[in-house]
Amino acid sequence: MIESILQKQGDFAEAKAKQSKELGKDAFLRLLVTQLQHQDPLNPMDDKQFIAQLAQFSSLEQMNNIAAGIQRLNQRASDQDMVAAVGFMGQDIVASGDSIAKEQGKISAVDYTLQGTATSLKVFVYDSSGNLVRTDSLSGRSQGKYTYTWDGKDDAGGSLPDGRYRVTFAATDASGGAVLVSTAVSGRVAAVERTDGTTILRLADGRTVSLSNVQTVTASGQSS
């Protein structure tokens, strides 16, 4: 008899432990039924407590339904992005980003926009491992849009191998304050991919940009 009671208490404790970790609809019902089955007949569960637990169950079920609905909406939006991105195949795009590619002697350019007049402007080029391979100092420039084309060499003048690189800028004004610099890359879309639920456009030179970062799309052969 004592062993049976201890076993029931153990089952109830196990159900409680599961509740604290991850309580789904089925687990909640099992816990509630366990409480009803093992309550003391001489001291039954209080009606208010019972109603409160039912209210918790109802709230839990509604939250689960909302979460499932949001997941379906996200999946639908992701599918729509994928379909829309297919229309970019073979088109020239401009997207926010800082990646460039060196391939068979050809080096892609990066556009940068100064949000104010810069008296000092430095360019930093990093390889695919995040190592700084080149630092350039450019002359001062007024607010506006410009293009930077790297020569493919390191600080010592040595030619670096083909691959993917990243370019960042640091600009300051006459008083030494920072000037905001935004960057954009361009290229022709060769493929559309999905990575971790994000739609990715792969350019002809192997670089990738997120669909959400695309700023302009131009039919191939036309000027942007």
What does this molecule look like?
This protein has 224 residues and is α+β, with helices and mostly antiparallel strands. The chain is built from 3 helices and 13 strands, in the order αααβββββββββββββ. Helices cover 33% and strands 34% of the residues. The chain is elongated, with a radius of gyration of 30 Å. The model is unreliable at 1-6 and 18-22 (pLDDT under 50).
Summarize the structure.
33% of the residues lie in helices and 34% in strands. With 224 residues, it is an alpha+beta fold. α1 runs antiparallel to α2 and α2 (25-37) packs antiparallel against α3 (47-86).
Keywords for this structure?
2 domains; alpha+beta; Immunoglobulin-like; disordered N terminus; 13 strands; single chain; seven-stranded antiparallel sheet; six-stranded antiparallel sheet; 224 residues; 3 helices
In oligomeric terms, what are we looking at?
single chain
CATH class term of the largest domain: Mainly Beta
Strand content: 25-35%
At CATH's second level, what is the architecture of the largest domain? Answer: Sandwich
CATH topology of the largest domain: Immunoglobulin-like
- How many H/I helices? 3
